[in-house]
């Protein structure tokens, strides 16, 4: 009888542990979220377009459908804003928003700036819907690394 209780208890514990490991409904459905902020481009910060474009933020869509980002805003703590024009982020895709100039593609968007946006020591990236509601934020506070995985 003791063995039966022990097996039942073990089964109950295993089932309970399995429930804890399951993703929440929001995680299961996916999201559009900040994935990576590469805030300290390689080399010296002299404002070359190649250096500006090595500073970027990646946004990932883990939902099961494409999401229109038209009117969505990416902003830093100093209120430097990038507003998406007509753009759809495909399901399972990532878009890289680069600081400098370039030709927009499905994988890369360009802010067209002549100087850096993301501070090399600490800052906060915020992604907002056109209504102004926050979708996601990602903060960093380090000079030991050049990027932050959100």
Question: Can you walk me through this structure?
Answer:
This protein is of the alpha+beta class. Helices cover 20% and strands 33% of the residues. The strands form 3 sheets. It has a 5-stranded mixed β-sheet, with no helix packed on it. The protein has a 4-stranded antiparallel β-sheet with strand order 5-4-9-10, with no helix packed on it. Strand 4 and strand 5 form a beta hairpin. The protein is globular and about 40 Å long. It starts with a helix and ends with a strand.
Determine the number of helices (DSSP H or I, runs of at least 4 residues). Answer: 3
Order of helices and strands: HHEHEEEEEEEEEE
Number of strands: 11
Structural class estimated from helices and strands: alpha+beta
Q: Provide the low-confidence segments as ranges.
A: 1-28
Overall pLDDT, averaged? 86
Strand arrangement across the biggest beta sheet: 8-7-2-1-11
DSSP strand content: 25-35%
Radius of gyration: 21 Å
Write a short abstract of this structure.
By secondary structure, the chain is an alpha+beta fold. It has helices at 2-21, 25-29, 49-53; strands spanning 32-38, 56-61, 67-68, 73-75, 81-83, 88-89, 94-98, 108-110, 122-128, 134-141, 147-149. 20% of the residues lie in helices and 33% in strands.
Describe how the helices and strands are arranged:
Blueprint lengths: L1 H20 L3 H5 L2 E7 L10 H5 L2 E6 L5 E2 L4 E3 L5 E3 L4 E2 L4 E5 L9 E3 L11 E7 L5 E8 L5 E3 L1
Parallel strand pairs: 7-8
Antiparallel strand pairs: 1-2, 1-11, 2-7, 3-6, 4-5, 4-9, 9-10
């Amino acid at each position: 009888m003791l063995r039966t209780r022990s097996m039942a208890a073990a089964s109950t514990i295993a089932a309970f542990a399995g429930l804890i490991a399951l993703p929440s409904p929001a995680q299961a459905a996916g999201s559009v979220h900040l994935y990576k902020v590469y805030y300290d481009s390689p080399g010296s910060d002299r404002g070359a377009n190649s250096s500006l474009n090595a500073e970027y933020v990646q946004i990932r869509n883990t939902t099961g459908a494409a999401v229109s980002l038209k009117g969505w805003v990416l902003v830093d703590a100093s209120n430097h804003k990038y507003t998406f024009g007509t753009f759809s982020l495909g399901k399972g895709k990532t878009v890289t928003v680069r600081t400098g100039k370039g030709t927009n593609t499905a994988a890369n968007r360009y802010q067209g700036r002549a100087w850096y946006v993301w501070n090399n020591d600490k800052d906060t990236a915020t992604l907002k819907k056109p209504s102004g509601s926050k979708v996601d934020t990602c903060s960093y506070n380090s000079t030991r690394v050049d990027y932050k995985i959100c």
